[in-house]
Specification:
The protein has 145 residues and is mostly helical. The chain has one domain. It contains 3 helices and no strands. α1 runs antiparallel to α2.
Amino acid sequence: MWGRIRRLREEIADLRAQLDRMRERAETAESNEKTERHNRRLITRQFCEADATNIRLEGRVRRLTDQLERAHEAAQDGALDEMGGRLDRALRACARYRADADGQARLIRSQQELLDRLYGLDTPAVAEGERWQERRHDRMKGVRL
């Protein structure tokens, strides 16, 4: 009888230890999920901000390009001496905006890669499953996908 009670107590201790381990794993999973959710929100916000900046800079670059084209047309009329200073400023501003737009494009690409990594879209399994519809066994014959 005493041996049976001892075994039951050992089982209870083992079950409590297992319960503690499971509780710890659940808490860790919840913490990881909260962190991932926060990171996704942060990346999405940064991506939207970078996209808005890129759109704004693209409009600015177009206006500067139009000004530059008008300046070149005026240069052919001999009015370059009058517009020399304005043209230099426009060229410098265009170079700055293009550099900024390139920086924003790099930022968007890096954030997209980070977002893909967070969602697990850069795994080999996703790449392998890219053309899964062509390999389906229940696919209708003669239908092009």
